[in-house]
């Protein structure tokens, strides 16, 4: 366990996270976890702002806890809280924990291609102070959105994807990203990431994909959905794993469509729900509200 | 084309459909259809209550029109309107039409198994006058809901499904249904209908099935959905074709769930959305608002 | 604080609440509450199933906590847990708590008038085992639903409301209710309760009322909403206080309507959302998920 | 009736409106309207793309019809279609109509203040070709959004609102707007328009306001809503009349909130639904899908 150290916040967040920290505890459920964690926070006179806890089976199942607490001397106290948690949780528990100073925003890189709806929604929310992250950079395989991104004061890097061999592009991505970001968002980035890249990058990656009932695999999903007459189009935000589009789901939503909607209308409605779902997923991830467990997530939203 | 003749209404519908008829016109789009239909209705001094029209391509695509009109002497006038439409639409159009006296409700049989949530919702809506149908009978492979159904004054027939050979049960179904119903609703009926049965029955069949993003095939879909951590559970009402669960979709909806919902909770939330979606689909079908075209539907809701 | 004692469960709940208790702690926030509560539960080897906590201001604001825990010998242990909590929370905290054995369902009386949509939805959910309550009785100012209610095995009492003087009817209500129920649900009960009755009854009362944007006061709200062309109709479930329809909101929802919906259609759509909203509110209340604070609620749904 | 003439389209719309016109017919219902209109369009060999019709009472109530048709030689044919409609509808009907070449987008001015969420959403939808309008200008009483607006290639005018006397500012507004725009959108413009200004401007004005159940009048509505514990926040888009916030509703929607949402969170969620609702209302208005009637609207969405 380490206390994540990050670059200072670009824009002040409206949310009063000053002097606040989040603590995620996750592992095998056992009697006494709550008391043990509570004792450490109590000893340090931490004010608990919120606490959410869930156990998928109180008899030896998996345990998930998210605590947000505040302390006047938070920065000074965190290292000792960390040591005390380590000591307390070492005693017969099978748990991991993650402690984070919420006044230090997580650093994110956004990958995009030509479509700008998800990208812009994130940039707008960030500028407005609604997204507690530092957007370290935007990377795209197309130069189209460069001016727009830079107008927000965010660095833009154009890394073309030349043909089937992605190794050069991925090497460039790794040079830009490693050590600089805490997570990555694929905002309608239309390239597949290799398993090797995902492993070497070593930080969470959030992706958004369209969802339909029934599912339409392959190219032109909106045309297939139109042909099938679906009444809902949706979107799913999930963590990227090697299994494309099969990683743990963070958030989903749908909008209603009708026979009168053309394929272009379905794409447009789909874009609306994609940007909304991705923004919520990024918000929750950046506020440490999402815990991964096997192939699903616990979201304390 | 025939004017559908049906048994008189059991309970008075609150919707003022007295003296009203619906006209569905469906076929290849061509200039002049609207004028031709309008001329026939105008000649008979019909008051047009509502008119919805859609063309998937105005240059030779498919044309769909639903008109509801009222006439004081509707019953007397309908046969002549029918003849006039036949004459008018015979002139160079490639169209079918369906003319129906809305004061005569369609007759429906409901199939159910043990779960009663969809069945009860339909019976209750019917009793309060919200569903303009005559429920001719309920057929179930389990006797469990017999008392309840009969308390609504609706005939209940128990037709057990004995093993893999469904031919005896299906023969019994056909004896009960043929000539007696205009459509069939599968209200969580947990048996598969054979293609032969569907063909011999010859009336539309509406089914409801749970829907998930992603889809979970086979038994125990709620347990699989729980494992995968879906954030939405849904339902799809569709017309039954030989391809199980692949027929034209009439209606879909979802509800939000979270990691804190157990498998039982997912089933319960799923049941809520199933009964809502099925009831809407049955309502729209019974009001002649749904037009099938290839493998999708036009719903003038 | 008392451990609520109630009649045994009529129907087995599907939710595995065997050996489970809920603990609600509510009062002024102060450092150390979590540790103090955790220590008591830890001492008794309680398995914490879920824990939700919220503070509207960690520096001396209001504190709300809901814990569900399980214990093999729950019934035997509860009195001692109660004493230990009393001792622990007496030390300098300004808190109330409520401890309840979840295997003992709360007892509810449902008040109804002629409309049956909310009433039936509650009765159905209860019979299915989805609502962890004992429905002690249904009281109505109209005899219309008597047969239906009794078919569920629930006592039905007809208490007519004769004119403006409600004192005789309210006296009869109190005779039926006092000591027999833990809360009351007004399922579209079209009579106003006097402040005196509410005070003398002394248990929570949940009401459902239609909601519109904008609000339409007085008789015929659906007709006014139609005239005003609203695009949403809704419902609000709330606790009853002396200020009619102004008590703490438990749950709200809306459905979409259009210009094509008649006043009857608005009522029908409104009824659908009313029964859904009321059922959720009753479910959450009966699972001890709702905490009242000033004129609003904390809902750990 | 006049055929509206407007400036050419700035950006190509993705919607295939080439050679398409919309016809709105609105007035007293009478037998024969559909046939009369159909005959005119039929005579000109118009291909009817869609047709929606509604009557609030087929016996002498109000009649509403929207037809979209296509013609190869649309621009040449429109004047004659206009004359033919005038002739046909003059014969004993009490109707108004509005004929518009859909390839000529309506011209709109957007008013904004400091909040940019609604403004940016409109500018962005317009740039990607989803909003079939020409944005003639943005007017604001604050200079804050000038750079951003101009980056979209749209003229920005700063018209400060100096104190309670709005006459100078309104005179400036009229100078900028008259003859230049077909409608105006108030995208969170925090100034009240005088009745005199509205009358002299003479084009439709669309406004967005937050909506709550219950409603909270005056300043700080989100703080009041938080205090009252609402579970939904919403937004209403409506036409502006002299009665502030009381004009015909075009669109409404809500999002779910909880006790855990702070006042800032409510504002943020409210902003999300405001921009979505306003964008839909502007889209429908610009596609001639909205008909005003008394104090409500017919929306053929």
Automatic annotation (TrEMBL), chains A, B, C, D:
Catalytic activity: (6R)-10-formyltetrahydrofolate + H2O = (6S)-5,6,7,8-tetrahydrofolate + formate + H(+)
Pathway assigned to this chain's UniProt record: Purine metabolism; IMP biosynthesis via de novo pathway; formate from 10-formyl-5,6,7,8-tetrahydrofolate: step 1/1
UniProt-annotated catalytic positions: 245
Keyword Acetylation: no
InterPro entries linked: ACT-like_dom_sf, ACT_dom, Formyl-FH4-Hydrolase_C, Formyl_transf_N, Formyl_transf_N_sf, PurU, PurU_ACT
EC code(s) of this entry: 3.5.1.10
Keyword line: Hydrolase, One-carbon metabolism, Purine biosynthesis
UniProt keyword Hydrolase, yes or no: yes
GO biological-process terms attached to the record: 'de novo' IMP biosynthetic process; one-carbon metabolic process
Domain ACT: 22-102
SUPFAM superfamilies: ACT-like, Formyltransferase
Gene Ontology molecular function terms on file: formyltetrahydrofolate deformylase activity
Similarity section: Belongs to the PurU family.
Function: Catalyzes the hydrolysis of 10-formyltetrahydrofolate (formyl-FH4) to formate and tetrahydrofolate (FH4).
HAMAP family xrefs: PurU (MF_01927)
Protein name: Formyltetrahydrofolate deformylase
Organism of provenance: Paractinoplanes tereljensis
Lineage: Bacteria, Bacillati, Actinomycetota, Actinomycetes, Micromonosporales
